[in-house]
Amino acid sequence: MKLAAAMGVLLAATAPAASADWSQTQPVTVTTRDYEFSPNRLVFKHGIAYRLHIDNPGKEQHEFTAPEFFKAAEIRDPTVLNADKTEVEVPPGRAKDVEFVARRPGHYPLRCSDHDWAGMTGEIIVE
């Protein structure tokens, strides 16, 4: 019986948020400037639907790389992520939107996979 209860908790923690109200998404914008995210610290509440607008007004492609975060979130349209489901690629002069619900609290690293060496890093906190 204990195993069944533990499995129920595990399934509940990884199941999609069935009650997500996508019509009520909270907008958040991140700008990818050359070698920095602005802001570089994002705070979300778990269970709330968000629309993350990632804007790249620069001249280089940037990636919003957060594999642990994307794995722990319900992504409304997973095709906005790369094939590995680890990042959002944003070409220069473009923007992309990611609608999601963070399913569990935690701290998640954020980086640009091409420019983390230059300090293009940050963090995502889910409360």
Beta-strand percentage? Answer: 35-45%
Give me the number of helical elements.
2
Number of domains: 1
Q: For the record, what is the CATH homologous superfamily label?
A: Cupredoxins -  blue copper proteins
Secondary-structure-based class equals mainly beta
Q: What is the N-to-C succession of helices and strands?
A: HEEEEEHEEEEE
Q: What is the strand tally?
A: 10
Termini separation (Å)? 31 Å
CATH class: Mainly Beta
Neighbour order of strands in the largest sheet: 2-1-4-8-6
Major sheet size, sense and barrel closure? 5 strands, mixed
General description of the model:
The protein has 127 residues and is mainly beta. It has one domain (27-126): Sandwich (Immunoglobulin-like), CATH 2.60.40. It contains 2 helices and 10 strands; from the N terminus they run αβββββαβββββ. The strands form 3 sheets. The chain has a 5-stranded mixed β-sheet with strand order 2-1-4-8-6. Residues 1-17 have low confidence and may be disordered.
SSE topology sketch:
Elements: H1 2-14, E1 26-33, E2 36-38, E3 41-44, E4 49-56, E5 62-65, H2 67-71, E6 73-75, E7 87-90, E8 94-102, E9 106-111, E10 121-126
Parallel strand pairs: 1-4, 3-10
Antiparallel strand pairs: 1-2, 4-8, 5-7, 6-8, 9-10
